[in-house]
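Hi P.,

Sorry for the delay on this. The queue was packed all week, but I finally got your sequence through. Input first:
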Amino acid sequence: MTTQSPAEKIFVALDYDNMDDALRLADRLGDTIRTMKVGLQLFFKSGPVILDRLHDMGFQVFMDCKFHDIPNTVAGASDSVTSHGVYMFNVHVGGGVEMMRRAKQAAITRAESLGIAVPKVIGVTQLTSTTQSVMNDEIGILGDVGESVISYARLAQQAGLDGVVASGHEIQGIREACGSDFLTVIPGIRPTWAEANDQARIMTPTEALRAGASYLVIGRAITHADDPRAAALRILEEVQASEGAIS
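Then the structure:
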């Protein structure tokens, strides 16, 4: 597994409703964090230009639009997003193995045709806002949330994806099921000094890294801080300290 610096392990969630605020925040973090996450709200407000602008500023982009449709449609979407040179994008594991396989293959084919790096394709398991009762009583999936996530991770690996998005509480089970090289992208990360907000299954950066997380997605703890750069540096220090303790 490639060793990464603390700055490469953190994705900042640019959960803004306009491009100006997102780029302003990214500019303030430019010398601290390498990858920005662009989600549905910002992408639909700004369009693909936000991807180009972030790349021009020197950032990698995690495109977080969670594709979930018939295999042919998702393959087309994967082809399109790959043409923008994103570092990573995600699809819903619930779409099935064939959908995920087509997504990854479309990304490989387009990247090779353009002579660019193949983006990492990540499967979304259960959202960090999904509680046990929501999964069982509302969505209609029986069993334990953690068991569902691990089952989804196995399907994603079978389809050839690079890893999954999951709660930090499932990292150990995913590593046992899929191996340490299978990536885990962990949202719901909250430093001890930040509020949980609307995510139910959360972890601190230290807890997630000690469990074996590959990447940490952090939003409001940085973007809503009075001094976002200072907050990012504080988290980077915590990550660095955690890695020192792990090694």
